[in-house]
Design goal:
Helices cover 20% and strands 32% of the residues. The protein starts with 10 loop residues before the first strand and ends with a strand. It folds into three domains: 195 residues, FAD/NAD(P)-binding domain, CATH 3.50.50; 133 residues, FAD/NAD(P)-binding domain; 84 residues, no CATH class. The strands form eight sheets. It has a five-stranded parallel sheet, covered by helices on one side. Strands 11-18-12-13-14 form a five-stranded parallel sheet. The protein has a five-stranded mixed sheet with strand order 23-21-28-25-26. With 438 residues, it is an alpha/beta fold. α3 packs parallel to α4 and α4 runs parallel beside α5.
Length: 438
């Protein structure tokens, strides 16, 4: 028997990257049939389409894949739903979501918590309604405007992701002698990619006293190609008027202040910026969703539900991940919860537990655990480098459990699993701390 409903769709997913694809497929698997994926690009796959290097899928598929191969696995599964056009997942490409308007009590007899989504695309402007919504818009790169580097505004300054798209998808080189500012994973990967294409990369410059990317990328992309990494340094001047002609690099102290007299000049024709990623949350703000100032993403529960009932979020729109495998797992969790919300309308679980970050930890995701029954996986990043480190989980002053780690660094996301027994022993809050082991 067909379910009665008042919404156009049981689930709308904004974003056709790895998080959105996983969410839609999991919701379909759980029984939802009127699902739409809204993607602003002309094809599905998201950022993975330009990530032609391997290293994806080791956790999720237990094999090493390139970015397009990884997303292709999910797209193939999506195409399998098209065998029955009536129940197929609808795909709306080249379509921009402009606004989200949550509506309370507007779901009618069959579904609850309808939200209205305003879209603009090749088919024109339209408004749809959905009984549940998954936000999977990903993240964007910080640009030069966020850095305030002195100098003129010549051509030859790119974000690392933009350069990656130019080379891998458009077939165009961005320069021949390239300095990279920042040691995020995209910048590290581009150092190797540019070298393989015949460009010279004299240096990778990092403001912090430790690398920002995965250790494996430091080894495979810098060390293997003899590209030096300057820690506790930054670009203090960009030279050139029409095109970049060089940069000045200076050392910084422990407070990130420039140390006079440490200037080094590098000649180059291009500067790549790999200085951080920011979750894309303009739509989340418009919808009135509470954002976490630490992650810049929505505050979520253990089921990835945001502060607005029926709206879920997953992937890099929540917090910046280092491995796409975890993005997919998070998408599946959001898709399963959205299906449960529509089909079973679970009762509210009360106050639950609040998760907080303590000493040595930058943030925790989720921020809330609604159910004390079952296990909960907690993701977080540490603030420094710890060898033979310890992760402590506390409720008030009482330590509930601890975990040992041989090595922890800010560039590598950490995760722990809290059992039902641990969650039941907690009171109102759980605090996660990290530091050197005893």
């Amino acid at each position: 028997m067909e379910r009665e409903q008042s919404a156009d769709y049981e689930l709308a997913v904004i974003g056709g990257g790895p998080a959105g694809l996983a969410a839609a497929l999991e919701a379909f698997k759980r029984g939802l049939r009127k699902i739409i994926i809204i993607e602003r690009d002309k094809e599905l796959g998201g950022i993975l389409n330009q990530c032609i290097h391997n290293g994806f899928g080791l956790h999720y598929f237990k094999e090493e894949l390139t970015g397009p191969e990884y997303s292709g696995r999910f797209i193939t599964k999506l195409e399998e739903t098209l065998t029955n056009p009536v129940n197929a997942i609808e795909i709306s490409l080249d379509t921009m979501a402009l606004d989200i308007v949550p509506e309370s009590g507007g779901a009618g007899a069959g579904l609850r918590g309808v939200c209205t989504i305003h879209l603009a695309g090749k088919t024109g402007y339209r408004v749809i309604s959905a009984a549940s919504l998954v936000l999977a818009m990903g993240c964007r790169e910080r640009t030069r405007g966020a850095l305030a580097i002195p100098g003129t505004r010549p051509s030859g300054i790119f974000t690392a992701g933009a350069a990656q798209r130019f080379i891998n998808m458009e077939g165009r080189m961005v320069g021949r002698k390239i300095i990279i500012l920042g040691s995020g994973d995209i910048g590290l990967i581009m150092a190797r990619r540019l070298t393989l294409e015949g460009a010279e990369v004299p240096a990778c410059i990092e403001l912090l006293p430790y690398p920002g990317g995965l250790t494996r990328n430091i080894v495979q992309c810098l060390n293997d190609y003899n590209i030096p990494l300057y820690l506790s340094h930054t670009v203090t001047e960009i030279r050139g008027r029409r095109r970049v002609e060089g940069v000045t690099v200076s050392r910084v102290d422990e407070n990130r202040r420039i140390i006079a007299g440490t200037e080094t000049r590098f000649d180059c024709d291009t500067l790549l910026l790999s200085v951080g990623l920011i979750p894309e949350n303009e739509l989340s703000r418009k919808a009135g969703i509470s954002l976490d100032p630490r992650t810049k993403g929505p505050e979520v529960t253990d089921t990835m539900e945001t502060s607005v009932s029926g709206i879920f979020a997953c992937g890099n729109v929540v917090h910046v991940h280092d491995l796409v495998d975890f993005v997919s797992a998070e998408g599946e969790r959001a898709g399963a919860a959205a299906a449960d919300y529509v089909l079973r309308r679970p009762a509210e679980d009360g106050a639950g537990l609040v998760l907080k970050n303590g000493d040595g930890v930058s943030y925790t995701v989720p921020q809330f655990i609604k159910k004390k029954s079952g296990r909960a996986e907690i993701f977080f990043r540490v603030r420094g480098i710890y060898r033979n480190g310890k992760i402590g989980v506390y409720s008030g002053k009482r330590e509930l459990i601890s975990f040992k780690r041989a090595h922890m660094a800010p560039g590598e996301m950490e995760s722990i699993v809290l059992s039902e027994e641990i969650l039941s022993a907690a009171e109102k809050e759980i605090c996660v701390r990290a530091g050197d082991g005893a």
